[in-house]
Amino acid sequence: MRAHSTLLPFLASSVLASLALARVPTDPWLSEFGGTPDLSFSGITTFAHLPHSRCLDRPDTPFDVAILGVPFDTAVSYRPGARFGPNGLRSGSRRQRPERGYSSVLGINPYMTGLNILDCGDVPVNPFDTPTAIKQINAAYRSMLNHPVASEEKMKELNMQKGLDGEYHPRIISLGGDHTIVLPILDAVHDTYGPVSVIHFDAHIDTWNPNRYYGSVSVQAGVNHGTFFWHAYEQGFIKHNASIHAGIRTKFSGPVDLTDDVTAGFDLVHTMDIDEHGVEWIAEKIKARVGDGPVVISLDVDVMDPAYVPATGTPESGGWTTRELRWILYNLMGLNIVACDVVELSPAYDTNAEISAIAAADIVYDFLAMLAIGVKGQDPASASASASGGHTADEL
Ligand SMILES: [Mn+2]
């Protein structure tokens, strides 16, 4: 009896509530809660809750900046798993949202400056046939570059580099994937802009000559995440003596590796230079090296210390903190960026707290900020001249 006495009022109120709902039969969610934005923990996981389109199947889809996952990891020398990097980066980006994207350091919300930013999903690369996968990445990137930009006016306002065809092409931020993906990407970027400078953040040089790289038992085996920049140099994708590594601290087979690196056209900043010279010195050295021409920024998350980013394929101790790296990036705002990537995130080695994925996703945020801030301090006419003239493969 006591149970009834407590239950009856509840039942009565439930019935009344049902009746109240019955009097609003149409769309109670929309009428009371419609338009509620997704929270950081709700919704389908796209990068930073951006709108998603399968752009590769919809060639007419316009965008100014695209996030493109490249889940490829069949050319790694140590720990595999970077095929889950795009998924990890999207998960690590969940607390980024366009309506909550303002940086008090940079004074900008890169999601809300008028650039149309889309998450275009992933390139569905073949996991069994590496040459075909590389071909797929190249085809996908070329197709993406040929999508129409959403706002030519905005591109012009930001002083963005035009392609060799005199047209604006969208910017693509690639989410790796192991670092090999950058070879087919540079191939496509070179066709659009001519030879480019590369700013390469990494613990490793990745310019190893395949003839001296262990495991290169065949032509195909010689194309991997430690040799791709050598191939890019040989193919003429990279502007000679205008590229630079930052954060190098791996061990080498000997001085010959560094001789090969100079041959491939790179200068380098050691990890420990930060203690002797500081962040601004590093940024100035990078800017002086790449100049005003088109630049690709390629960032291996192992440039950060494994204490901050354990989830990577070839970790090296003694790296930069997340804050040091991001401070360097803040000092590089205004460069003539035509493509960027964040690679080698291998989420299986992350902590449950996703420390690596969150750091990697914030690097993508910084790249978006670079693009949203635009190109500063140069004459666009001279930039396109340096992109199209003077530096051909024949001069390498
Ligand atoms: Mn590396």
TrEMBL record:
Keyword Acyltransferase listed: no
Key words of the record: Hydrolase, Manganese, Metal-binding, Signal
GO MF entries: agmatinase activity; metal ion binding
Amino acids binding Mn(2+): 179, 202, 204, 206, 300, 302
Details of cofactor binding: Binds 2 manganese ions per subunit.
Signal peptide range: 1-22
Keyword Nucleotide-binding in record: no
Pfam families: Arginase (PF00491)
SUPFAM superfamilies: Arginase/deacetylase
Cofactor: Mn(2+)
One annotated GO biological process: putrescine biosynthetic process from arginine, via agmatine
Family: Belongs to the arginase family. Agmatinase subfamily.
Name this protein carries in UniProt: Agmatinase
